[in-house]
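Notes on consecutive records. When two proteins share a document, each keeps its own sequence and its own token line. Never mix them. Below: protein one.
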Amino acid sequence: MPQSEDSFDFVADGEPKPASDDHPTGTPTSDSSKAAGKGHRARLRERLLRGGAEALADYEVLEYLLFAAIKQGDTKPVAKALLARFGTLAGVLNADPGALQQVTGVGQTSAAALKSVAIAARRMARSEISEKPVLGSWQTLIDYLSIDMAHLTVERVRVLYLDSKNRLIDDHHAAEGSIDEAAIHPREVIRRALDVGATALILVHNHPSGNPDPSRADIQITHKIAEAGRLMGVTLHDHVIVGREGHVSLRARGLL
């Protein structure tokens, strides 16, 4: 016997979903609970606007972001389920959309709302380093790299090419996978520097394990790129490794 249309609620994108997906409790909201929900949303909005960055707990930030996708009902259970699944607010925002949708109550619209925030954060951070000398804005650079790479589940290698004033002229995605000469060739790194008119560079990669401590291969490839650069008049300022547990500068460690 087919289900009646009343068995479904409609989410923001207009696609019907079972009531249990839109309502984490698995039951439709009553008029009284809808009124209570509106009051809660209004109070949360007021705290956000008046209280600044620390006004809301991480789960409340997620609650508010989910309001755009889940028009009615309590989003707190969904927000707390996301934090339980991904560990931190950053972990949620950097999660794969497919993984987000495995959490009960999260559909395509909710996943897109969360991913849009992650994209906005990356672009804001990138704009900060694009307008200033990188070496004079080191913490801003680290913040940008952490936002962009700390939560990746695969190892990625990037090369930041700088002009004579140490301004970013090219943020090059060089390779995926372990950082060794099979993935990244020192001569190719330096050749690209000459092609784009760079006089210096910063090597960057992430450790999906979360621990940013350099491996022997990390140190070896750093020395080879530095030596190749010296021969062609291109300076390797640093090799930065980022992970969920922080970052490591090989120059600060005395390894460059």
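Protein two starts on the next line and is unrelated to protein one.
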Amino acid sequence: MTNQPKNKDPVAALWAACYKGAVAEMSEERDEDRPMPFRPREYAENTIFIYGPFVSERVGDMMRYYGESNYMTYGVFEEQMARVTGNELMLRINSPGGQIDEAARCRLRLQMYQQEGGRINALVEGMDASGSTLLTQLADQRQIADMGSMMIHEVRYPLDAYGYYDENGLKKVAQKATALAEYVVEKNAMMASIYAESTGLSVLQCRRMMTAETYMSASMAVDKGFADSIFRP
């Protein structure tokens, strides 16, 4: 009988093998053969399209390889920002959120644009959830479609605690979980402060809404101060 290494999840190993195979196939294909992220610049001038989840560049490459065009990486975002001219831009948003660090980088880029005198208008077309709300709440004017939705919740991070562990392995997992918990507490406080500043609610109110994972219709988003008005063409 073959001895299997400790603390290895066979499912995770299978996914890792699939990823390596996909990367090998991707390297053999021409770049123009793969679908590009969806960002129809020809339809609107000075418009940033935030469609799909925020993901890392590596995950974005995988999604692109498998034919998915609705995703947002910082690279895609910066590419769109580089085409903006003038001092006003429009954010069109339909995103479930995604990786908070990637969304935070995009938010910082918009803050730099505002510091240079730029004005941001945001339109929530469908869903504006989790990390994507960081960008919406930064806008000078926030509109939401009459059938649009918003959602805020607590920050979540993957722990990667899969498989079977011996005593030392479990201690390491516990240490990592403790460190992540302290990190997430600070991130939650920061996000609650961002929401409080943009909505006029108290930090405690925003924190409670995050804990409850609050979904808001267009009218609720306006009532709570997460949007300024409902967009009706």
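For the record: The beta strands are 47-51, 88-95, 119-129, 141-145, 149-152, 214-217, 229-231.
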